């Protein structure tokens, strides 16, 4: 208190409660007596003031100290620490998270996050997935770490929670910070910034960690193919990629020549120096393929197998997705990596054609068509089926137009280096512009299984992978090699039998494979039950064919009716035109005759008038009536008037 009173004279006095104490500063006496008059003890106010002053001083000191600490830490981080920040939207994040997980780094920490599988029952999550046109999530999470199931369900996964961690890499201390982005919606995963720090100005240690993480991840991924799907963010991006187990080309059973031709073409396109060759020849470095044909015939399987064989990631696009539009498509093509396969499945389902140019146009067209269809149920039944499929696609909301698609595929700013694979079940529905050479360089048709495919499918399902129970007599006494050889010999015979008993070109490979898988542990059982399956399938097929035949007959009848109607319309039109022409000609003739008649009458009238005028004139000149004139002597005109000749008249006038 003494110290305070030394600084602020009068305050100490006021603290004692004496109003006289206020005389130490101007007006103090007056304020003191005022406060005393309203019953406030001035000493309390003074104490509060002093306390506030002390608190403010402490805060001031601390904030200056914090500023100092920040400056020091900035100095350290600028000069003595190296750091690398990776955002969770970047593929490198997956490398690092996977690396941390493999090396048990964050999971050993005192702070860790625990997740099970994403809650697929969460309505918000489902809504989000639907909104963005995503499939329900699979086991691989966005940090690239899959969750395995045990017998009871998904296991727990431990990852780094937000915060600071430390670990040692090659005996050196590394700090790590995991920070969640502040703003995110509840049903999205928040973006995360992962920062690694090492002491020292050299970033070599960090680069070494990142490179190790990259190599580890990519080597792990070799046994799988990365599938990226479009995510409708703004701007649109690709998902980080879900690894799918690699598929060998041998596992896709199709015409060997087609397979070889395709693979050779793709290898040729991808080989070093090919890009320069394209550019030297003034060609855009792009290659497109169309896989078309029946559903379940192996189009997607072949694409997966090709990607595995060529070591390329797949970027999947669904044109029928509700979020797909011209600018989205263009943005997605612009962000493709240099080498990849772009897979556009079921391109017919987007409802794109030249007439409508966009889904919206098509919708209107089909809507009006369907109104007409109500009037005539039989008409254009098969085509209607296809149109309904397109309409369904449009109802999903795709607004991609043909020009937008062509622009993305090979417009001036279009991406180079990719392989584009388009698949469709209905090649005939595609616009010619989309599949013209240059956009589609090779087409592969997928049909029902012929004998070669039937045998191949059989062998593929029952190949000796060690799991198959022995179907070779006396196998237990054989060596591994002998057993393998016997297995192959027997399989060859069984496959041949299977191929000969199943009718060729009747079933899709998927149907055949489905049957074989229902007997996957016993090829002989598959042959024993084959007749029953064939009977039921062929019966189904007969029914199907019967209904298709009826549909075709109905279509033929409708077409015939339509043709007749059109012919009748044409005849009526021609008749009508002819009649119209005749009437026109008649009218024209009448008009001409009328005009001619009028002209003649006019001429006649003019002639008469002229004659009359002449007569009039003569009359005036000669004074002779037309009757008398007739009596004149030709050439001489002996008498003119009153019996006087011209000569007499002249002589009279001369005299
Ligand atoms: N040629 C084939 N060789 C091996 N398996 C095949 C073949 N065709 C189909 N399958 C099998 O049938 C299933 C469906 O095949 P896939 O998805 O490749 O057919 P798709 O032609 O792409 O069908 P969709 O047109 O309906 O997309 C897969 O399980 C696949 O393994």
UniProtKB/TrEMBL annotation:
Residues 550-566, 574-632, 645-655 have a biased composition (Basic and acidic residues). Residues 550-655 are annotated as: Disordered. Residues 285-450 form the AAA+ ATPase domain. SUPFAM superfamilies: P-loop containing nucleoside triphosphate hydrolases (SSF52540). Pfam families: AAA (PF00004), AAA_lid_BCS1 (PF25426), BCS1_N (PF08740). Keywords: ATP-binding, Hydrolase, Membrane, Mitochondrion, Mitochondrion inner membrane, Nucleotide-binding, Transmembrane, Transmembrane helix. The lineage of its organism: Eukaryota, Fungi, Dikarya, Ascomycota, Pezizomycotina. Its main location: mitochondrion. It comes from Arthrobotrys musiformis. GO terms for molecular function: ATP binding; ATP hydrolysis activity. Residues 57-252 form the BCS1 N-terminal domain. This is P-loop containing nucleoside triphosphate hydrolase protein. It is found in: Mitochondrion inner membrane. It is a single-pass membrane protein. Belongs to the AAA ATPase family. BCS1 subfamily.
């Amino acid at each position: 208190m003494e110290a305070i009173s030394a600084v602020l004279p009068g305050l100490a006095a006021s603290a004692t409660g004496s109003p006289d104490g206020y005389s130490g500063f101007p007006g103090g006496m007056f304020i003191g007596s005022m406060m005393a008059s309203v019953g406030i003890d001035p000493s309390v106010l003074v104490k509060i003031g002093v306390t506030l002053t002390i608190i403010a001083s402490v805060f001031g000191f601390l904030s200056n100290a914090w500023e100092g600490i920040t400056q020091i830490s900035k100095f350290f981080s600028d000069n003595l620490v190296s750091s690398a920040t990776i955002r969770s939207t970047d593929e490198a994040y997956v490398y690092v998270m996977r690396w941390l997980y493999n090396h048990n780094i964050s999971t050993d920490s005192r702070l860790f996050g625990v997740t099970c599988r994403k809650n697929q029952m969460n309505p918000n999550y489902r809504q989000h997935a639907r909104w963005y046109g995503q499939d329900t999530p699979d086991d691989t999470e966005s940090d690239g770490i899959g969750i395995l199931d045990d017998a009871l369900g998904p296991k727990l996964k431990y990852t780094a929670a937000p915060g600071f961690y430390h670990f040692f890499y090659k005996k050196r201390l590394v700090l790590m910070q995991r920070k969640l982005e502040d703003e995110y919606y509840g049903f999205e995963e928040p973006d995360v910034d992962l920062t690694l720090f090492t002491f020292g100005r050299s970033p070599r240690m960090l680069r070494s960690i990142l490179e190790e993480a990259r190599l580890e991840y990519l080597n792990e991924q070799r046994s799988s193919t990365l599938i990226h799907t479009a995510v409708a963010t703004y701007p649109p991006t690709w998902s980080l990629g879900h690894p799918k187990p690699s598929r060998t080309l041998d596992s896709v059973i199709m015409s060997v020549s087609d397979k070889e031709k395709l693979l050779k073409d793709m290898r040729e396109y991808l080989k070093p120096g090919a890009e320069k060759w394209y550019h030297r020849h003034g060609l855009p470095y792009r290659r497109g393929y169309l896989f078309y044909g029946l559903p379940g015939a192996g189009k997607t399987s072949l694409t997966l197998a090709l990607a595995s064989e060529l070591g390329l990631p797949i970027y999947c696009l669904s044109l029928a997705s509700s979020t797909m539009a011209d600018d989205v498509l263009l943005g997605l093509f612009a962000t493709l990596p240099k080498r990849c396969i772009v897979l556009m499945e079921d391109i017919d389902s987007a409802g794109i054609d030249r007439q409508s140019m966009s889904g919206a146009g098509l919708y209107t067209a089909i809507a009006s068509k369907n109104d007409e269809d109500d009037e005539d149920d039989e008409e254009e039944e098969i085509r209607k089926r296809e149109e309904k499929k397109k309409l369904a696609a449009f109802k999903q909301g795709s607004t991609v137009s043909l020009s937008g698609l062509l622009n993305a595929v090979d417009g001036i700013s279009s991406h180079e280096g990719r392989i584009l694979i388009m698949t469709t079940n209905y090649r005939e529905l595609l616009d010619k512009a989309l599949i013209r050479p240059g956009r589609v360089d090779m087409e592969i048709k997928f049909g029902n299984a012929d004998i070669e495919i039937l045998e191949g499918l059989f062998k593929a399902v029952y190949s000796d992978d060690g799991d198959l129970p022995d179907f070779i007599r006396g196998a237990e006494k054989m060596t591994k090699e002998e057993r393998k050889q016997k297995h192959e010999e027997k399989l060859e015979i069984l496959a041949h039998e299977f191929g000969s008993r199943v009718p060729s070109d009747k079933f899709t490979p998927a149907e055949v494979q489905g049957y074989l898988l229902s007997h996957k542990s016993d090829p002989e059982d598959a042959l024993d039950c084959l007749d029953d399956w064939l009977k039921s399938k062929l019966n189904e097929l007969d029914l199907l064919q019967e209904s298709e035949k009826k549909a075709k007959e109905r279509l033929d009848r409708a077409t015939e009716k339509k043709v007749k109607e059109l012919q009748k319309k044409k005849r009526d039109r021609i008749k009508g035109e002819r009649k119209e022409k005749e009437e026109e000609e008649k009218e024209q003739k009448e008009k001409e005759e009328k005009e001619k008649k009028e002209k003649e009458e006019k001429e006649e009238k003019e002639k008469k008038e002229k004659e009359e005028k002449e007569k009039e004139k003569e009359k005036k000149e000669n004074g002779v009536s037309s009757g008398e004139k007739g009596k004149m002597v030709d050439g001489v005109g002996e008498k003119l008037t009153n019996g006087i000749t011209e000569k007499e008249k002249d002589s009279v006038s001369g005299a």
